[in-house]
C-alpha cells in the first residue's frame, strides 16, 4: 500500500525534528539520516517509521523513539576507532546507528527471535562491523573483553558493577536507570583515573532489563 511507505517529506521532517530538539552532532545526524528505520519496524508500522515515537516490535519489546536514539548516541561521544557494547539489541536500529560511528559494535539480546531478525537486517544493510549475540547483559561472557563505550537500552534498577568493570579508562557508559515500568533517568558514567563520575541526564521510559536468556515458545 502506497500510504504505508515513508515519503521523502517524512524523512526531511525527521531530520528537522532532531535538529529542533537539539541534536547538533553532524555525524550523529548523518547516521540518523542514512539508516532506514522502516526496515527495523513491523510491516504494519512502515508508514510511521519516521515519526518521533517508539514502536512495538516482536516479543513485546519496543524500538526506541528516534530522538532518544540520537540523544543517547550523541551523549556517548563516539570516535571512529571505538569498540562499543550495546545491551538490548531489540530491532537492531540503535546498533546500526552505532555501527556508522565506531569501529566495532557488539550487541546483546536476550530474545533469540529479536537477535536473529536484527542480524538479518544488519546484514542486509551491510553493517559488517556489528556482532549480534544472544546473551544476557547481566552476565556478560568473559571473552567479550572491554569497551570504549557502553550503551544500555533497557531500564536497569542500578548499573551493575560488572558492567562498569568492562569500561576502558576514559570510557563512557549510558543507561536508563530507575524502577521497572516507571520513569527512569538516563545516567552517564565516565571512567576516570580516580573511579567513576556519574551524571544524571533526562527522564526517559524504557522496557525493563531482565535477567537470563528469554524462554520463547
Ligand atoms: N535498542 C533497541 C531497543 C531496545 S528495547 C532498538 O534499537 O530497537 C530493549 C531490549 O533489551 C529488548 O529487546 C529486550 O529484550 C532487551 N533486553 C532486556 N534485558 C536484557 C538483558 N539482560 N540482556 C540483553 N538484552 C536485554
UniProtKB/TrEMBL annotation:
Methyltransferase as UniProt keyword: yes
Highest taxon, organism lineage: Bacteria
SUPFAM superfamilies, sorted: S-adenosyl-L-methionine-dependent methyltransferases
Gene Ontology terms: cellular component: cytoplasm
Catalytically driven reaction(s): [protein]-L-isoaspartate + S-adenosyl-L-methionine = [protein]-L-isoaspartate alpha-methyl ester + S-adenosyl-L-homocysteine
Active-site residues (renumbered): 64
Function of the molecule: Catalyzes the methyl esterification of L-isoaspartyl residues in peptides and proteins that result from spontaneous decomposition of normal L-aspartyl and L-asparaginyl residues. It plays a role in the repair and/or degradation of damaged proteins.
Family in the record: Belongs to the methyltransferase superfamily. L-isoaspartyl/D-aspartyl protein methyltransferase family.
NCBIfam families listed in its UniProt record: pimt (TIGR00080), PRK00312.1 (NF001453)
Protein name as annotated: Protein-L-isoaspartate O-methyltransferase
Amino acid at each position: 500500500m502506497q500510504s504505508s511507505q515513508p515519503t521523502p517529506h517524512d524523512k526531511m521532517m525527521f531530520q528537522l525534528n532532531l535538529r529542533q530538539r537539539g541534536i547538533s552532532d553532524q555525524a550523529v545526524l548523518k547516521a540518523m539520516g542514512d539508516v532506514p528505520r522502516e526496515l527495523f519496524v513491523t510491516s504494519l508500522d512502515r508508514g510511521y517509521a519516521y515519526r518521533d515515537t517508539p514502536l512495538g516490535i516482536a516479543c513485546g519489546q519496543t524500538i526506541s523513539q528516534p530522538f532518544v536514539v540520537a540523544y543517547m548516541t550523541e551523549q556517548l561521544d563516539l570516535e571512529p576507532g571505538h569498540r562499543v557494547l550495546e545491551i538490548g539489541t531489540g530491532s537492531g536500529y540503535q546498533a546500526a546507528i552505532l555501527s556508522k560511528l565506531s569501529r566495532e559494535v557488539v550487541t546483546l539480546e536476550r530474545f533469540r527471535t529479536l537477535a536473529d531478525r536484527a542480524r538479518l537486517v544488519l546484514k542486509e544493510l551491510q553493517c559488517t562491523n556489528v556482532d549480534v549475540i544472544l546473551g544476557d547483559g547481566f552476565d556478560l561472557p568473559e571473552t567479550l573483553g572491554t569497551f570504549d563505550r557502553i550503551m544500555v537500552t533497557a531500564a536497569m534498577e542500578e548499573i551493575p558493577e560488572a558492567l562498569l568493570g568492562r569500561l576502558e579508562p576514559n570510557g563512557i557508559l549510558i543507561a536508563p536507570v530507575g524502577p521497572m515500568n516507571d520513569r527512569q533517568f538516563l545516567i552517564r558514567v565516565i571512567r576516570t583515573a580516580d573511579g567513576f563520575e556519574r551524571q544524571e541526564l533526562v527522564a526517559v521510559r524504557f522496557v525493563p532489563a531482565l535477567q537470563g536468556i528469554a524462554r520463547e515458545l
